[in-house]
């Protein structure tokens, strides 16, 4: 029984060890980052990490993102690589499990020494990755529209923030004379935050919110909630449901006798991939995105053609996969502007400004301060081919404003608290 | 040899301690040391399951509940510690700009309260629950289903209270651990050392319990509850102690899981997480001392490393191994040693050592579950 005191002593000795404490701010800020990155640039390849859920509930969406990243890497390699180095990618599975996302991020950064990581889909996965990339001073490129109110020196966002997707959608609804709105969403970060913003803006626009319902991401039964929509009889339904839960929602919507003629839905996560998978015609409903396959831009036909010819193609292009495609090209542009793969050099190049990517949705510009990109706002209406007829487009590209600083209806103290928390 | 035999487990624990506390920090990279710390947490919970299930015959299918109590107590404390004074945790501001801190968060600002909660919450919950169940002689499949249902219920409760608990997204982004900066390799090693030391302590505790009078009563209760009752003992009390100890170990495991992994979500405490804990114990050998811990660590390692190589394939490998072990080694991989020893002795024509011991200790008469 001597072992117990011995162990206790050992534990105390360890506790008294030399780690930094909360007061030592200088050391805390430097942290492990001071140890320097382990990115290997000696050979003629550069390692990048792709982190997507290839298993679990989100695999249906994230597999496409993974495939298009592979396509973009192949294209860049065929074109001479980045700074003359061929991309060597390491694919990891996030398994729709947020701690796994954190673990794999750490593995990619510290074991594989990748120069940057691309992937994630749900905001929960991004929130799990964020502290790890910040701690290790890595880079993460996140390709999906999200709820905004976030920025990080270690994350680049190539999907829309709120003022590039949700606010345009609200403006469109107001212009259509919508007076009452019902909010339906999945129960996690993105819908909760998006709806908090929608409620604030709706009050400004004079739109009444007549109901707000949430169902967990992994649940499909929307019957009760849809009956509340029927009772509230709103002019429009704002849908922030994600993933396969949409199938249950659409089924309950049509079963309850609702139609796009009387109670249309505007969605922010049903795109070309999802529309045919709803198990019911969704023709006549709306979606707010930045990219649509039907977008007429110089680069779009070539992009669609290359994707359809790609071995793992899903056949249609959509906003999140296009944003993922942009993310790799954005990294290429940044590394070439910096002339380096080091994170600090890349962030410095970003801060200098003027980084653009000639993307399928048009020429997007990186905001060097908040690490988001400019995007066109578009509202589409689903047609019989499950493609979108564009019914509204923004006047030029919308500059990213993740903290909604240009909108005075957003409470300043909340913004300040969030900015302060982000450090 | 015979004089050394009772001390073999202690020697084993000592070797294990040297491996974990001296060799591992010296040879492993920070990434793998951190992963090993995570496996240690699952192993701590597994040691408790080994006691309750392997020795006590209670199929605790829902240890995620107690793992979750410890984990969320710790996560709430670390979240508040990482939040600026006077400010709210970020997720609360996001969901409701006008929110205020829920009352049940408030005491978790205190270091002492948090540590007390990690120890006392599982003891109280398991004590009350176990008392009610065992005194009513609820056992076997009914007990298993009930404990599993509790794990599901807690996970659903947390998922559905997103404003108060962070819901499905969980709690993450911890910067400090009781004043220590988590983003510092020296402190990460320290947290690993705490987890590894506690695992060793739990093994010692269970070894001591197993060879005590209580340990014999526990095995007796598992194998013939009625006979124990006729001998004048109350099996409910014996089971209650094992159940509470297992719950406490699961809670400690959860509490350490949080600073090591950096995030806790309901998925880590729900039904499948609880079953994975049991799977490790079954794989390693539920009634042996080292089996549960090593089994849980092996499953953790498989998840990190095989899951990387074959994302789709690893679950099938786990399933296959589980089926094979259940079919051919019902007492887990650790029973291989005993069998190998038996074969060796038989081929030499000498009686195996194992026969010196009372036979039923390691081999329950039935499967200990359905009885």
Automatic annotation (TrEMBL), chain A:
Alphabetically ordered keywords of this record: Signal
Keyword Isomerase: no
InterPro entries tied to this protein: ABC_urea-bd_UrtA, Peripla_BP_I
SUPFAM superfamilies for the chain: Periplasmic binding protein-like I
Signal peptide positions on this chain: 1-22
Protein name per UniProt: Urea ABC transporter substrate-binding protein
Lineage of the organism: Bacteria, Bacillati, Actinomycetota, Actinomycetes, Micrococcales
Gene name tied to this protein: urtA
Automatic annotation (TrEMBL), chain B:
Location in the cell: Cell membrane
Primary site of residence: membrane
Superkingdom: Bacteria
InterPro entries: ABC_transp_permease, ABC_transptr_urea_perm_UrtC, LivM-like
Transmembrane domains' residue ranges: 7-30, 36-53, 112-134, 140-158, 189-209, 240-264, 313-338
Topology with respect to the bilayer: Multi-pass membrane protein
Keywords of the record: Cell membrane, Membrane, Transmembrane, Transmembrane helix
NCBIfam families membership: urea_trans_UrtC (TIGR03408)
Protein name: Urea ABC transporter permease subunit UrtC
Lineage, highest ranks first: Bacteria, Bacillati, Actinomycetota, Actinomycetes, Micrococcales
């Amino acid at each position: 029984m001597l072992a117990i005191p011995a162990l206790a002593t050992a534990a105390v000795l360890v506790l008294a060890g030399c780690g930094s404490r909360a007061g030592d701010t200088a050391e805390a800020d430097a942290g492990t980052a001071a140890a320097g990155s382990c990115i290997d640039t000696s050979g003629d390849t550069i390692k990048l990490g792709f982190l997507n859920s290839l298993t679990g509930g989100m695999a249906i969406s994230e597999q496409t993102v993974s495939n298009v990243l592979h396509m973009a890497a192949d294209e860049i390699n065929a074109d001479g690589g980045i700074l003359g180095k061929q991309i060597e990618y390491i694919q990891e599975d996030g398994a729709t499990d947020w701690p796994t996302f954190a673990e794999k991020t750490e593995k990619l950064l510290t074991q594989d020494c990748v120069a940057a990581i691309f992937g994630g889909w749900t905001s929960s996965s991004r929130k799990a990755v964020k502290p790890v990339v910040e701690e290790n001073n890595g880079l993460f490129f996140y390709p999906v529209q999200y709820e905004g109110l976030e920025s990080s020196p270690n994350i680049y966002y190539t999907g829309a923030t709120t003022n590039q997707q949700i606010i345009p959608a609200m403006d469109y609804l107001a212009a259509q004379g919508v007076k009452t709105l019902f909010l339906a969403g999945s129960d996690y970060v993105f819908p909760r935050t998006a709806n908090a913003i929608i409620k604030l803006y709706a009050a400004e626009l004079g739109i009444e919110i007549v109901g707000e319902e949430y169902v967990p991401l992994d649940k499909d039964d929307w019957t009760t909630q849809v009956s509340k929509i029927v009772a509230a009889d709103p002019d429009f339904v704002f849908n922030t449901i994600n993933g396969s839960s949409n199938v249950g929602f659409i089924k309950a919507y049509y079963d309850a006798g609702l139609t796009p003629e009387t109670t249309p839905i505007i969605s922010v996560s049903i795109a070309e991939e999802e529309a045919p998978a709803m198990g019911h015609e969704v023709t006549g409903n709306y979606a707010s995105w930045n990219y649509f396959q039907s977008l007429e831009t110089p680069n779009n036909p070539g992009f669609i053609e290359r994707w359809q010819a790609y071995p793992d193609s899903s056949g249609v292009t959509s906003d999140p996969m296009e944003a993922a495609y942009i993310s790799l090209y954005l990294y290429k542009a940044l590394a070439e502007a910096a002339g380096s793969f080091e994170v600090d050099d890349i962030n410095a190049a970003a801060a200098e400004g003027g980084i653009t990517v000639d993307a399928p949705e048009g020429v997007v510009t990186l905001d060097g301060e908040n690490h988001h990109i400019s995007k066109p706002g578009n509202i589409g209406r689903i047609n019989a081919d499950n493609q979108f007829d564009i019914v509204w487009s923004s006047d030029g590209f919308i500059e990213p404003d993740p903290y909604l600083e240009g909108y005075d209806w957003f409470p300043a103290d909340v913004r300040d608290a969030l900015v302060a928390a982000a450090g | 040899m015979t004089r050394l035999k009772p001390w073999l487990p202690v020697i084993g624990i000592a070797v294990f301690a040297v491996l974990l506390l001296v060799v591992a920090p010296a040879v492993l990279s920070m990434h793998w040391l951190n992963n090993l710390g995570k496996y240690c947490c699952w192993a701590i919970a597994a040691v408790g399951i080994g006691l309750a299930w392997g020795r006590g015959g209670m199929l605790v299918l829902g240890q995620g509940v107690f793992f979750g109590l410890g984990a969320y107590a710790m996560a709430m404390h670390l979240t508040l510690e990482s939040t600026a004074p006077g400010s709210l945790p970020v997720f609360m501001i996001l969901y409701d700009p006008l929110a205020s801190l829920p009352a049940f968060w408030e005491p978790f600002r205190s270091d002492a309260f948090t540590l007390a909660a990690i120890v006392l919450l599982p003891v109280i919950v398991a004590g009350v629950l176990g008392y009610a169940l065992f005194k009513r002689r609820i056992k076997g499949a009914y007990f298993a289903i009930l404990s599993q249902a509790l794990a599901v219920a807690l996970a659903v409760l947390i998922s559905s209270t997103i404003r108060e608990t962070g819901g499905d997204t969980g709690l993450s982004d911890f910067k400090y651990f009781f004043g220590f900066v988590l983003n510092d390799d020296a402190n990460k090693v320290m947290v690993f050392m705490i987890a590894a030391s506690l695992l060793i302590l739990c093994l010692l505790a269970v070894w001591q319990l197993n060879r005590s009078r209580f340990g014999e009563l526990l095995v007796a209760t598992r194998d013939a509850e009625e006979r124990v009752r006729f001998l004048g003992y109350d099996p409910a009390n014996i089971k209650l102690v094992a159940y509470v100890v297992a719950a406490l170990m699961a809670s400690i495991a959860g509490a350490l899981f949080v600073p090591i992994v950096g995030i806790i979500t309901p998925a880590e405490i729900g039904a499948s997480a609880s079953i994975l804990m049991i799977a490790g114990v079954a794989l390693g050998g539920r009634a042996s001392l080292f089996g549960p811990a090593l089994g849980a660590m092996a499953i953790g390692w498989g998840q990190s490393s095989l899951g990387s190589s074959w994302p789709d394939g690893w679950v099938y490998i786990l399933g296959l191994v589980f089926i094979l072990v259940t079919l051919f080694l019902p007492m887990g991989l650790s029973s291989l040693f005993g069998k190998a020893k038996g074969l060796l002795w038989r081929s030499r024509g000498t009686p195996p050592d194992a026969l010196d011991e009372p036979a039923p200790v390691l081999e329950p008469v039935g499967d200990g579950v359905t009885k």
